[in-house]
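Consortium newsletter contribution from the modelling node. Members have asked for a concrete example of what our holo predictions look like. Here is one, prepared for the phosphoenolpyruvate complex that several groups have been discussing at recent meetings.
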Amino acid sequence: MTFSCHGIGISASYSIAIGKVHRLERDQPTIRPRQIRSDETGNEISRFCDAIIRSRSDLLAVREQLPASTASDIVDFINTHLLMMEDQALTQAVEDIIKRDLFSAEWALQLRHNELIKVFDEMEDPYLRTRKDDLDHVVTRIQKHLLQVEDTSTDQNMEGKVIVARDLSPSDTILMRQQGICAFITEYGSPMSHTAILARSLNIPAIVGIKASTKLLHEGETIVVDGLYGIATASPEQRQLDQFKQRLQEERGKEQTLKALSKIPSVSTDGQPFELMANIELPEDIETALKNNATAIGLYRTEFLYMNRQTPPAEEEHFNAYAEIIENLDGLPLTIRTLDLGADKPVDNQHHDNCNPALGMRAIRLCLKETELFKTQLRAIIRASALGPVRLMIPMLTTVREIDQSRKLISDIQQELKVEGIAYDADMPVGGMIEVPSAALDAHNFARKLDFLSIGTNDLIQYTLAIDRVDEELNYLYDPLHPAVIRLIRISIEAAHAYNIPISMCGEMAGDPQLAGLLAGLGLREFSMQPNSLLKTKQALLATDFGQLTIQADKIFRALENGHHESFSDNILKMLH
Ligand code: PEP
Ligand code: MG
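And here is the predicted structure:
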């Protein structure tokens, strides 16, 4: 019988996959308490060490098989698991339990796992909380070796299979991708979970968060995974299947067309130019950005420089990182965002003693409190401006006072450098992000004081709708088309135009081809996005008439202002189709 279930969709080059269900029923091995004699502890510890060595060699073998072109975050997943297996917090503690409490290695590991999971559960940060999946995967792998449970799930031919599992470990997902799986569905996961991140990196359509999917779906039945809408259709009728196949066919054709678009000038059907820029986090991201003809880096998230370390980077380290990117960009402008730590981007050495980090001491607030930390990065950015076109961008601005304070620090540093005879670009543009409703509503004053604006819709949506962006239970409220969000975007764009300064958007919304027309209708001409989204968005914009869209957007807003609130989303959707 045909039926559909819904989750969170993840699109790859093709949003649709059609395959046969392969259920991965890999329940956790059953671990029971087992007491040992004191003369057995040595043997138990060496069983444990042996299981770790075997588990590590499994992962090293997976890493070994990865082609050189593999995205860095995939390698990072494996490296994280390898590091966890070496971590004293896990290994030493298990050995201590074996010796002290005379428990078997697998039970000692289970006890340590439970303790660590409690620590993860108590973390305030929802992103970090989801990292306990990694701990689960690592522990399960070691326990299987201890219990000598054969794992044959990745040994078979997976060609054309859609994997349905409670959750997937990164290494298994990678192996199964190499063995030809065409999609996967998991019961757990949010858009920020590692499974979702992996699906994007591995270019596999997927749906995460379909509760009970391992029970609802039958082995071997045909299933269509629609990563665009997050809908899985099991045992589709012939007519539906034909429609899906046709969509897939069209998508394949489109991919070829997309590749051909990279060199075409970015101009709408009515002759209006637009600009497509890339968001990057690591220097490696530049390759895809350049391949897809990004005209600039519209957002360089510098947070990674601060992560997984105890002390913040020194000025030279910042400077060298920026210099490398500037060199690779070969003359294209680089927008360096000053550090945006806190909330969903915590650092190891940062303590959350406030109860609501998303509303707390983060980004520019932290920088203006810890000015030495801020000045180190500012000096490096200002020095880097001598090497190529650099723009400095400040995140999470809430008041114009923060702009004044930041500008003062910047000009003081420029003065210092001048005295020291160190080169910098005195005209380096200083811009700010519109991520908080107060900034959007006061955008005219922001535009007066800044050289450019960039709308960060990821945060603007969360703050406007009062929902934590990484809380999977609130996904249903995360709506970029909420009239309040669209109004704030419109106000910001109008403010920038009124003061004749550039405005771009660098939140995920900018790289959504379905919404590109709406944004163009609101007057946006600069879009900055994940490098993989550049060509799809370009294609959407190349096919639109900006003049017509502007007229339609005006009409929709007039209707909204006249109280026709109910039809707002419908009108927007009509405009986009
Ligand atoms: C945003 O908030 O839209 C944004 C681009 O910044 P980040 O996702 O890094 O918070
Ligand atoms: Mg943000």
